[in-house]
Give the backbone structure.
Amino acid sequence: MTIIDAYPPVLAPDPTDEQLEDFVDEFCLEPCDDRALLWIYLGPDGVPVAPPIALGGSPVEPTRDGVETLALRIVEVAAWVDATSVLLVWQSTDESLTASCDDQRWAAAILAVIEPGDLTVHPPMRRTPSDVRPLLPVD
């Protein structure tokens, strides 16, 4: 079986960090060459229900208005596509600790204000050219 035969990948209902890493690695077939926030909507069977949404050009520091707007849109679009869960992925070519901390601040800010209702928000991930890892928000 080729990768195209198995595409799109499926995410387990209660995924481990390793399953999340594998899913992001398999789902994002294109090279990681831009800084962006991707969000991927999944159905109850763990299959993506819509193409991923990518947002580039966001400031390094999260702003209150920006975070609130993103959180609202994530939940709003999930309802439009009948998603049961969403996975947020910060993608960057910058593999430095500083860039990772910047992404952690964004993730923490969004998770602090999002009102998902019945939508499951999976632990956020970070993707760089050499790696995919959980992006654990800072307190």
